[in-house]
Amino acid sequence: MDLYQHDRLDLDRPAILLLRLAKGRHGTISCEIFQAYLDDRGRGVPYEALSSTWGSPELTKDILLNGKRLPVTDNLILWIDAVCIDQGNLRERGHQVQQMGDIYRKADQWLEEEATKHACSDWRPEDVRWANIWKDMEGQVALGFHSDLAFRQRQGLKTLLGHEWFTRVWILQEVASAHAARVCCGTKTVSTRYFGLLRGWLSVVPSPHCQAVVDMMPGISRQRSWRAGRRDLFTLLRRFGHSKATEPRDIIYALCGISTDASGPGVLTPDYAMPTHELMRKVTEFLFLCDMTEVPGSRLVGIRDLAMRVE
């Protein structure tokens, strides 16, 4: 069977590729891929955005895309970013990264896929083991043994919050841009509006980085913490610069997309053909000049002013 090759994307407009999944429960996953535009006001195609971690980079599974074969990773058989962006086309990749915030912002819903395998991850809803667990819990609750149930709930939430997904840099932009979202684990889902409250209900203390991600999710905490804080590029780099990324330059490009001072067109435009050292020079220059202009009374009129400001 022929191998799927990406068609050229319209880089003159905010174009994206969308995936339509064909119905079916068994056999090879089959999809249709097509081009859509984010600026089609009133005529845009409703879509949902899916987020996950890459997992192993090995292409171990095949899906059918427009009738042709496409190898994908095993972590998420339907891995939308890897399918809908031609990773080998650096110009297209930069074009898509530049509008990543709009892609997630304009999605009807954003889905986070939790890929960690647990003992019950593969149980079907009708599996008798679910009934056995409930009978066990029901008996303990009736006898007043709430502590064991609460312990299991806390351990489950700790496991979920400890997943690698929370450490990835692109997740920050995806979470911050979405207007509605659900966290998915196997066949179970929960709205982020409730997911963000679980930590307080179960007295779980996640890492500061993980808590920041939860605070960005659509819900009550977003308005109270994320949007109320400083979001300039310098602050974001100090707070999230240690996030994980397969491509080191993504640390900059992802944070620029959610910053208040570097997200505009032409500021630090994503360019994967640019060497890392050149990007570092541009970022340093940008941060230095921003620091000069944002501090009251810091207008530079001579070399002495510059020297004093550096001190």
From TrEMBL:
Q: What is this protein called?
A: Ankyrin repeat and sam domain containing protein 6
Give the matching Pfam families: HET
Q: Which residues form a coiled coil?
A: none
Read off the InterPro entries from this record. HET, HetReg/Transcr_Mod
- The Heterokaryon incompatibility domain extends over 47-174
